[in-house]
What we know:
It is globular, with a radius of gyration of 21 Å. The protein starts with a strand and ends with a helix. β9, α10 (252-262) and β10 (269-273) form a beta-alpha-beta unit. The chain is built from 16 helices and 13 strands. The protein is of the alpha/beta class.
Amino acid sequence: MTRVGHVLASPFPALRGTQGYLFELMRAQAALGHEVHLFCYAGRLDGEVPPRVTLHRSPPLPGVPSALRSSPGLARPVNDLALLGRLLSDPATRRMEVLHGHNHEGGLAALLAGRALGIPVVHQVHGNLEAELESWAGAGRARLLGPLAPLAGLLFDRRLPAASDACLRLRAPEDRADFVGEVLPPGISPAAEQAPGLDRAALARSLGAGPWVAYAGNLDPYQDLPRLFATVRWLGEERPGLRLLIVSHDPPEARERVVQEGGLKEGAVRVVEAPDAAAAARWIVAAGLLLVPRTEPGGLPLKILNAIGLGVPVVTTLAAAAGLGEEAGVVAGGASPEALAEAVLGVIEDPGRRQALQEAAERFTRANTWENVARACETVYQKLTADR
Length: 388
């Protein structure tokens, strides 16, 4: 078995995509008998730590927040340096046989520490930093980088995978045939693990008259929420009774702001807080359909995989689907609000198709487990340690 140190330049735990991925991967690795460690920021947001996983938090710094969300800011590079310091000074790091860095900052910290200490490094690509920073710059939240934001992201996207000893990606980049790394999609957690004891009929009744479509997750700019609201407005013209359910763990002020900016008619949207993953799962099942408007070319939204595991059909764009289709319970097509709306109508107005998508999602879940992902990582680790 392998002693693996995961490196995450973010708070942990947190109800966000990367942290959710890491939770499931570490839990599966520990179940296989690996010695699993996580080096992360001092702060935490919400959620649980997997059993049999040892956390090594960077030291808290006076006056510097460490329970950060996704947006850029001065606190992030300061926390990154504290994390790197923890990696270099913690005796536990020297015991690691592999460092597995997640996302761009975690990958860089793992690479620097691994090279300094002679430990092989796996870089895990979770998204496209060029596109993410461009969206933040457009929202006015990356002022320090300004027009340099996409260029800085591109540098990370291209250089880090090549500099590491191995690279794992959730999906192949659409704009590069010569990409570095191995494609390893996430696993899928079945409904019994996400929220035991689901009563689909009772949950659907709890929402009241619909039909409903759900959006779940954070409310950051890269989620393409204006496209979501435009789609629901278009749907409201065709199906006046259709309503949007927003399920989010973001702060109340963020939820209120995004609804105000959405401009939907009164009564057409309901916003609920999801304090944990099980609560989010129950709301998604209650709505019965997940709408994911993202067009960012990198990553694979974990919310899609969670919905598949719950047996809930998903309507999304080709970019966000990353190759998933109706064999997985996913309807992927054009990114325009009209195209997304037509796809939604094609599901909610055809009960037979909806049932077929649910059954396909359940079959796909059984074939794509987190244990499979953990064993694939195990193979990569064994090769690196053997080479070492």
